[in-house]
Amino acid sequence: DPLGPWPFTDFLARIVPEDLESYQRAIELPVPAAQSASNAIRYRIRRPDGNLRHVEARYGDLREHDRSYRFGLVMDVTAATNLSERLQDNSALLDLAMESIEMVLW
């Protein structure tokens, strides 16, 4: 559900403290002019309702005449992140089960 426009300072305040420094380092670096794709960074935010969400920001620089602009899009990737974590956990459980029964699958 879209939250509508956020002032940038409000947006930064939502980033969890453990992720804020890496977020700021990443977006301060210029996107190389020869790079056609945008950059991406994943981090976590705390929503106004208290929910912790995983998000991915894709951003780039637009150069026009003698000016440069930063553009970006933030997407909620919580479901994909949770699924990936569950798959890793299940894989570890399967490895442990395989070791404990000394069986090999082909």
Characterize the biggest β-sheet: 3 strands, antiparallel
Order of helices and strands: HHEEEH
Instruction: Work out the number of β strands.
Output: 3
Strand content: 25-35%
Q: What are the low-pLDDT stretches, counting only 5+ consecutive residues below 50?
A: none
Quickly give the structural class. Answer: alpha+beta
Shape summary: elongated
Describe the strand arrangement of the main beta sheet, using strand numbers: 1-2-3
State the share of residues found in helices, binned by percent.
Answer: 40-55%
Total of helices: 3
Mean pLDDT: 80
How far the N terminus sits from the C terminus, by CA atoms, comes to: 45 Å
Instruction: From the alpha carbons, calculate the radius of gyration and give it in angstroms.
Output: 19 Å
